[in-house]
Amino acid sequence: MRKVYKSADEALDGLLFDGMFIAAGGFGLCGIPELLIAAIRESGVKDLTVASNNAGVDDFGLGLLLQTRQVKKMISSYVGENDTFMQQYLSGELELEFNPQGTLAERMRAGGAGIPGFYTKTGVGTVIAEGKEHKDFDGQSYILERGIVADIAIVKAWKGDEQGNLVYRKTARNFNPNAATCGKVCIAEVEEIVPVGSLDPDMIHTPGIFVHRLITGEHEKRIEQKTVRAA
Q: What is the residue-level pLDDT of the chain in tens, covering all 231 positions?
């Protein structure tokens, strides 16, 4: 099965449609799949629901999709540092589903593991619990959270081999491993593709069985193009 694609556009070909659900890795601006985000923006696909810890900033990350009003709903933990997000939310243009960070990470992990829902104490007694099923275990109240299964997952890794096995670098690991598992199709943007067998099996963070498509080698070209246009 071919997994390595020449560009983000090629890797996303045939997957994008209006109203789709995207799970995105990254935390702040660390470990975000910037090339895939740029390609999604350029495609013009709209009415997106995006599950991600945050929505980037105004001019980078998922904030680029907010600029073009391609996102209908965000499922996030943190939405600060993005004026565009704030303006669209306050004006009613953008829906927001707040999730505690641990809950959002577990929702992605659960969806990838085939678990449709789980109970957690986090959020009990707050607005997070409104409208959700409550159940008592051992005298403690818990709320039901649904696992996330997205149409596609987009993630950023440090290294990957041609079978799709991924290794993340330090803090860039963040939400990426969980997001990678919960997409019906996972597209990984990697800094380097290495030969099969060169990754230590004990160091692989996302097994290739979860990864369907890989891209690399575009970063410098995109940066050069932006520099030329700015000049």
A: 789 999 999 999 999 999 999 999 999 889 999 999 999 999 999 999 999 999 888 889 999 999 999 999 999 998 877 889 889 999 999 999 999 999 999 999 999 999 999 999 999 999 999 999 999 999 999 999 999 999 999 999 999 999 999 999 999 999 999 999 999 999 999 999 999 999 999 999 999 999 999 998 654 455 455 545 544
HSE at residue 11, side-chain half, CA atoms within 13 A, is 30
pTM of the model as a whole: 0.91
Helix (H, G, I), strand (E, B) or coil at 131: coil
User: Going by C-beta distance under 8 Å and a sequence separation of 6 or more, which residues neighbour residue 71?
Assistant: 48, 49, 50, 55, 62, 65, 94
